[in-house]
Amino acid sequence: MELSRRKVPLYGQAKVFALLDGFDSLPEDAEVYVVLEGSTLVHVTRALSDVMLCFIVPGHNLAEVVSVQAYLCSETTPLTWVGGASLEYVQDEAQDLAEHLVVHGHCLSSRDHKDLSSLFNLGQQSSRWAMDRRVALAMANLDIPQNWNVLGSHSGDEHSFRESPLHMAVRWGLYRLAELLLCQPGGLMAVSLPNEEGVTPLQLAQTAGNTELLELLTQ
């Protein structure tokens, strides 16, 4: 079995096409399932068949090479192995940024956004749009600690003035990331949380004139 790509981001959600050896066409009632097996997790997803097989790679928990096996089944055909290959999950810059915001979410400063913006190429609008989707997917796929929250306090009791991950998302204009953070513990409270400069994420959105973020933060 030949795959259209051999590497996918750790958070998955990548479309992969597969060419089965020796199969010009599949039975009309056939369904193909793809099994991705890693060292600790196994994923099963259904492949769509048109000109070629196509499946969406799910998110994974480790950067590693996984086994990819395809199986065909139908009402008239028993479960049949039809091909195998391998696929490597890799850590990309969106994964790095998502992990940074989670790990360092309690000690961010209002100056960090410039350094991170430069590091992750968030200066151009086209780069921000692409990163927004990817970093939101990466953060959604993370195994976030139960005591983590957007306000930056591990205890959840006292929250001093500090830059939150939501501040960062608003500064960068990352709508999908901001939307995801609002759904996390402390997300709604973070909207009106002032940083060390006394500025809230809502005020940042107002200053930037970002109508989409303003609607999101005030709904």
TrEMBL record:
SUPFAM superfamilies: Ankyrin repeat. It comes from the Eukaryota. GO terms for biological process: regulation of Rho protein signal transduction. Gene3D superfamilies: Ankyrin repeat-containing domain. Keywords: ANK repeat. Signal peptide: none annotated. PROSITE patterns: ANK_REP_REGION, ANK_REPEAT. ANK repeats lie at residues 197-219. The keyword Plastid does not apply. It holds the Pfam family Ank. InterPro entries: Ankyrin_rpt, Ankyrin_rpt-contain_sf, Rho_GEF. This is Uncharacterized protein. It comes from Champsocephalus gunnari. The lineage of its organism: Eukaryota, Metazoa, Chordata, Craniata, Vertebrata.
